[in-house]
From TrEMBL:
InterPro entries in the record: Bact_Transport_Assoc, DUF418
Protein's organism: Pendulispora brunnea
Lineage of the species this protein comes from: Bacteria, Pseudomonadati, Myxococcota, Myxococcia, Myxococcales
Pfam families listed in its UniProt record: DUF418 (PF04235)
Keyword Membrane: yes
Keywords: Membrane, Transmembrane, Transmembrane helix
Sequence intervals crossing the membrane: 12-31, 51-78, 98-131, 137-155, 235-256, 268-289, 309-328, 334-358
Domain of life: Bacteria
Name of the featured protein: DUF418 domain-containing protein
Residue ranges constituting the DUF418 domain according to the UniProt record: 219-376
Length: 395
């Protein structure tokens, strides 16, 4: 890898592919049916049940975990590069997260109750001190985070919120989101946020912080600058083989012994399974990217990864319009398999549009706005003629 390259193509590809998993699972489990509720459907016919089982076992949770890890990697990259140019790099990174929090708040309250940007911004702020901490401290806190999450579920205040997601909430959410006006949906979403989301975050945050700390550790390992090393590739083979094998076995067991749509108690084993599986996926992709033929094939995901922020928000704008009452009102009327298929097709469309956009512009539109607000001045958006090759925009 050329050390002068400002973007790391491998990260863009992995982020882009992770977004495919996020999109398909969001469509199947959060856009087509109310997110904060246990829906009683049986996923229709055999195809729906098979796709739902496969999604639960091999994608659901794993794509989000990989995305969280990459967010931690991104924090490290930004801080390292900003430190070389700015005397107050930490302050700049904190401002970047505050801007993300503003975007996430607008996304959560005005558009969709399944937002992850708010939590990423807030958890990212908790992760900032660990960018300067010793490696053993980061490891210790990461382990503590993964262990703490399952035990927090026993806290009565949190357990009450989790249990309240079951009785009657699905039917009410289906009615409001599927047939209500924008104002009715907005009020109901605020009710969900106050009574459910805030408390449920208490369960999710430790694990997400742990994932981000793992990302910080991965960046510190220098793996992205040593991908050609035989020793590094041997380690990646072990992580890929072990992670996918162990993750598959544990995920199949958990998926088989729990209802597809259940959000019942998540054990420590479940959380670790998602982490191990995500690391296995990431290592496997890095190995494939080391081969010219596979690199050429997988590189189509890079533009989506470079514009992940824009693509994520665009998915919300499109699919809330499709499923909510102020749009087409298709909520609860689509099967699991059809939703996944639509997600794949929409992902392909976003890949084409992202590639075309990046031929002319250095950033996606929301990435540009995020960057401009971070630095407090408008950043150049149109790509200069001499910088037309992919991968030259600063992360």
């Amino acid at each position: 890898m050329n050390p002068q390259r400002l973007r790391i193509d491998e990260i863009d590809v992995i982020r882009g592919l992770a977004l495919l998993g996020v999109l398909t699972m969001n469509l199947a489990e959060a856009f087509r049916v109310p997110y904060w509720g246990i829906h009683p459907e049986s996923h229709g016919g055999a195809l729906d049940r098979a796709v739902a089982f496969a999604g639960t076992a091999f994608v659901s949770g794993k794509a989000f975990t990989l995305f969280s890890i990459l967010f931690g990697v991104g924090l490290s990259i930004f801080f390292e590069r900003a430190s070389a140019r700015h005397p107050h790099a930490m302050r700049l990174l904190a401002r970047r997260l505050v801007v993300l929090l503003a975007f996430g708040s607008a996304h959560m309250f005005l558009l969709w109750h399944g937002d992850i940007l708010m939590s990423y911004a807030l958890i990212g702020m908790l992760a900032l001190p660990f960018l300067r901490a010793r490696t053993r401290v980061v490891i210790g806190v990461a382990v503590a985070c993964f262990v703490a999450g399952p035990f927090l579920r026993a806290w009565p205040w949190l357990r009450e919120a989790l249990n309240s997601r079951i009785p009657g909430h699905y039917e009410e959410a289906l009615r409001v989101y599927g047939t209500g006006s924008y104002g009715e949906i907005l009020r109901f979403r605020m009710h969900e946020f106050v009574h459910l989301v805030v408390r449920v975050y208490g369960h999710v945050w430790p694990r997400e912080l742990g994932n981000m700390l793992v990302g910080i550790l991965i960046w510190r390992s220098g793996v992205f600058s040593k991908l050609a090393s035989v020793a590094i590739r041997r380690v990646l083979w072990r992580i890929a083989g072990g992670g996918i094998a162990v993750g598959s076995a544990a995920s199949l067991y958990l998926a088989w012994h729990a209802p597809i749509s259940s959000v019942g108690p998540r054990t420590l084993v479940h959380g670790i399974t998602m982490l191990v599986f995500a690391l296995g996926y990431g290592a496997a992709l890095l190995l494939l990217l080391g081969h010219a033929r596979w690199r050429e094939r997988l590189s189509h995901a890079a533009p989506i990864g470079r514009m992940a922020f824009t693509n994520y928000l665009t998915q919300t704008m499109v699919f809330t319009t499709v499923f909510y009452g102020y749009g087409l009102g298709w909520l609860g009327q689509m099967g699991y398999a059809i939703a996944v298929a639509i997600g794949v097709l929409f992902y392909v469309l976003q890949g084409v549009l992202s590639a075309v956009w990046l031929r002319h512009f250095a950033f996606g539109p929301f990435e540009w706005a995020w960057r401009s607000l971070t630095y407090g001045e408008w950043q150049p958006l149109r790509r200069a003629r001499r910088a037309c090759t992919p991968g030259t925009a600063l992360t």
